[in-house]
Amino acid sequence: MAFEPKIIGFLCNWCSYTGADLAGVSRIKSAPNVRVIRTMCSGRVDPSFILKAFQIGADGVIVMGCHLGDCHYQEGNYKTIRRIPFLKRLVKGFGIDPRRLRLEWVSASEGDRFARIVNEFTEEIRSLGPLKLQVHTELRKTIHEPVEVV
Amino acid sequence: MAKPKLALYWAASCGGCEIAVLDVQEKILDVANAFDIVFWPVAMDFKYADVRKMEDKSIDLCLFNGSIRNSENAEIAHLLRAKSKALVAFGSCALEGGIPGLANLTTKQEILEFVYRGSPSTVVTDGGVFPQQHTKVPEGEIEIPEMWETVKSLDQVVEVDYYIPGCPPVPNQIWGVIEYILSGKPLPPKGSVIGAGVKTCCDECKRERKEKKLKQFFRPYEIETKPSECLLDQGIVCMGPATRDGCGALCPAANMPCRGCYGLPPNVMDQGAKMVSALSSVIDAHEPAEIERILDQISDPMGTFYRFSLAHSILRRVEKS
Amino acid sequence: MVTLKIDDKQVQVPEDTSILKAAEKAGIWIPTLCYSELFEPYGVCRLCVVEAVRGKRSRVVTSCNYPVREGINVLTNSPKIQWIRKTILELMLARWPNVKVVKDLARDVGVEKPRFVSLQRDEAEDACILCGKCVSVCREVVQANVLGFAYRGIKREIALPFGVQSEACIVCGACAHVCPTGHIKMVVEDYKGKKPEFTLGPKTAIYVPTLQAVPRVPVIDADSCIHFKTGGCEYCAKVCEPNAINFGMKDEVEEIEVGQILVATGFDIFDASAMAQYGYGTLDNVYSSLEFEMMLNSTGPTNGQVLTKDGREPRSVAIVHCIGSRDTNHHSYCSRVCCMYALKYAHLVHDRTKASIYQFYIDMRAFGKGYEEFYVRILDKGVKVIRGKVAEVVEAPPAQKDEGSLVVRCEDTLAGKLLEIPVDMVVLCNAIEARRDSDAVRRLFSISKSPDGFFLERHPKLDPTSTMTDGVYIAGCAQGPKDIPDVVAQASSAAARMLSFISKGEVEIDPVRAFVQEEYCSGCKICNSLCPYTAIEFLAEKKVSHVNEALCKGCGTCVAACPSSAMTGHGFTDAQILAELDGIMV
């Protein structure tokens, strides 16, 4: 079976989620690979969630927020603009291609932009291939539960 | 009534945890009086065979330190799990992989290459032979344990009842745990972290903290720190905010930043990710280039943020293709 | 003080007072045409002459600039004076027979018909009588020094330097105001000061911003007002009887605390000069909708008459729909109101002129209550309604000039014919578009915009007046093009929403709020500087942070930042998000 990337998208409630909704309402076709989690602000996206997404099998993670200066919460996305590059260093440190993590700004009016980015990112991940991590095979479920190995 | 049976074991670790037990000083005599020590290889001569002969669940308390690095560690972990009522992951290595867990930044092959061939102090003879699991000698075949690709924490191998964090656990906390057990009070729920608090290192740190705005990071040798101010406020990456309390904030008291040995606080999933999140929140820069410049000042992020917890972090190890 | 007699009446006035002033004090009227208290007397009209008698000596002097002398007797109406005045007025009447002030004064002194014939006879009612008031006011009051007398004798006239409009003229209008005959008029010219909302009609440095301004009070444009440049002039203050002019007023920034805000910042109209094919801005008699609206206004520059630029009634008027709207090159949306106001224009032009009227439309959208009926009425009036988008508006070739000054080219898509229609006037129905500063406004209130640039409502159907930001509402064309009934409905709805909160006295806040689990907080102070709403305070005694839930908006940035995960947030806890993650990865 052809490789279908699994992508987790963290979308802020006010801009990107609304933008994604607009893409849908406007019947703009976009890749179905991005599985969306809504947060109130891109600033809510804890880097742990992103690592967790990779751990449980995501091939790529995309975080979307309001354009800089447009944050519904004034400056939440300014935290994100620092977190994601910082996290990319860790992601790279873990041996994962940092291109698998992406930060994009999509406003509520940019349904077309949402679709374009999603399509682009999906194709990029498709070309990178599936993300294979040893932890995938070791894990049963969550990290806090004891895991049987050997 | 028979004395409760105590076992201590040292897997892949430095042995500091064993010393820490002795650091309760003269109280070790009380320990010896109160418990029947049935297994403690570093201190007394026991054979694995003796342990195998014990009945299942006959050891009341087993303090297991060290991570699981090879097949022997795993074998004894399983053995002690079977024989113990309460198996305690004792110290950072057992709890979360600890310093040996940093081996997960590389591969078994790379380690062997370096140790047996690459290191500047190695003289390569016979083309650089790696340790063999099975070796034929005139007396027959001998077997040494198999080194694993990936270092694991104890609970990634067997079920663990309690966790005592620390590299090593501080003596007063060890004694506190022993005293508690001896008091006969009901034991905490299974899976609890004992001998530590639920807050973070900052709670015990005497340094004065301000609201944070960081423009520059330093390594400890680069600046003369002010003794009464928060090290993080001064630009030194201190893991204190994302590290469980219990140690008494010993390192910051000695002018060194917290390295995170007491592990992650109760609700945290990943010490490194959390610290990245916290630090990036308080970096005072809006421009991507400026942000990158500041981030460049943090050398060795993996070693800094996952010094003890790499093997137990969300992703556990580095992928090397 | 000086004591003198005027017509045997004893008067006491300060030294250096003019006889005219002293007479005024004594209640004696002396006719004058060139005198004004605003500037130094010039003594040019000679009508204020009086006899100043000292002992046996008598002198005829102009009372406006002759100072009082101790003990003189002034005769203002002696036979000699009467004879002089009559002669002067006869001479003036001979030259300016129809100027009202001259005629009135002549009648007052008993002159019916002059004995003279003037070579410069000027029949105009508003002829210049060379009183020089305008020169004086411009020189002494406004201090612009633009006007002056030129030539001598019978050739004397009021002139601009070198006969051209001077850069120094600030179009203050003081000369026109002071002119006793109305000879000086304010005409439409390029206005030099701040651009007013519309450019039809004269504008001075003090003006009423728009015709329908509420309150209808003039404002001073400090950038062009001479007073703010030289400290002089103050002409407006001098002529304002209720003393309403206050030069001391300053722009003030006032901070008002409110709980709710209705953003109703309106719209701009599409700038039709972006569609060069319609000739807006390059061809005469091509108007934007708002300009035409202004022309139709009965208090507007043409008093509501429909006139071409040269003041004629147009023989035909083309009304062109969808300028910048329903056009993928500009705005793809329908501007909604244009069809109906275009029909209104047709109705008014039909009422006020005999012009033939053409409507060029893409689709006629008579969507509201009574609108279709209105459309039918317009059709019945004989307005020619042509379905087709106008290709271009060009100046008529000489051969067609007698039918119209412009030619509208278009395809009648119903008849399938190309049309070339000569018209005298083209009215463009410009699209309503988002205000050019709407991005700044949007950021101010942290609200979003839709792809068309208008402010975004919380929900297009279920919540069309509120925004994503609590307490901020939108109404009117700021939210999207709409006509008056729709604006009224939306604004009323927003007002009602706001009132309901006011009467309730309390607001329900979204439960998505952060809170600190104090047992896990160590007071590391990572979070305290993060909150833009300063909702996170540090409790010094407890050594923990605390979230003020009334201030918190629930973004969760602090939750993500908290290194000990002591901070958490209702609705978006780590556990909830992880559960979602688990769920969607299946």
Task: Explain what this protein looks like in three dimensions.
The complex is a heterotrimer of chains A (150), B (321) and C (586). Chain A is of the alpha/beta class and 150 residues long. Chain A has a single domain, classed as Rossmann fold (3-Layer(aba) Sandwich). A 4-stranded parallel beta sheet of chain A has the order 2-1-3-4, sandwiched between helices. In chain A, α3 links the parallel β3 and β4. The longest helix of chain A has 18 residues. The two termini of chain A are 31 Å apart. In chain B, the strands form 3 sheets. A 5-stranded parallel beta sheet of chain B has the order 2-1-3-5-9. Chain B has 12 helices and 9 strands. With 586 residues, chain C is an alpha/beta fold. Chain C contains 14 helices and 25 strands. In chain C, α9 packs parallel to α10. The longest helix of chain C is centred in the C-terminal third of the chain and has 21 residues. Chain C starts with a strand and ends with a helix. Chains in contact: A-B, A-C, B-C. The interface between A and B is large, with 34 and 43 residues.
Task: Produce the secondary structure layout.
The complex is a heterotrimer of chains A (150), B (321) and C (586).
Chain A: E1 7-12, H1 16-25, E2 34-39, H2 47-55, E3 60-65, H3 76-93, E4 101-105, H4 111-128, H5 134-138
Parallel strand pairs in A: 1-2, 1-3, 3-4
Helix pairs in contact in A: 1-4
Chain B: E1 5-10, H1 16-22, H2 27-34, E2 36-39, H3 48-53, E3 59-65, E4 68-70, H4 71-83, E5 84-90, H5 92-96, H6 108-118, E6 134-137, E7 140-143, E8 147-152, E9 162-164, H7 171-182, H8 201-204, H9 250-253, H10 271-282, H11 288-296, H12 301-305
Parallel strand pairs in B: 1-2, 1-3, 3-5, 5-9
Antiparallel strand pairs in B: 4-8, 6-7
Chain C: E1 2-6, E2 9-13, H1 19-26, E3 49-54, E4 57-62, E5 73-75, H2 79-95, H3 100-108, H4 133-141, E6 148-150, E7 157-159, H5 174-178, E8 206-207, E9 219-220, H6 227-230, H7 235-239, E10 261-263, E11 267-269, E12 286-287, H8 289-296, E13 316-323, H9 338-352, E14 356-361, H10 371-380, E15 384-387, E16 390-395, E17 406-412, E18 417-423, E19 425-430, E20 432-434, H11 438-444, E21 472-474, H12 484-504, E22 514-516, E23 536-539, E24 544-547, H13 557-561, E25 567-569, H14 574-584
Parallel strand pairs in C: 1-5, 10-21, 12-19, 13-14, 13-19, 14-15
Antiparallel strand pairs in C: 1-2, 3-4, 3-5, 6-7, 8-9, 11-20, 16-17, 17-18, 22-25, 23-24
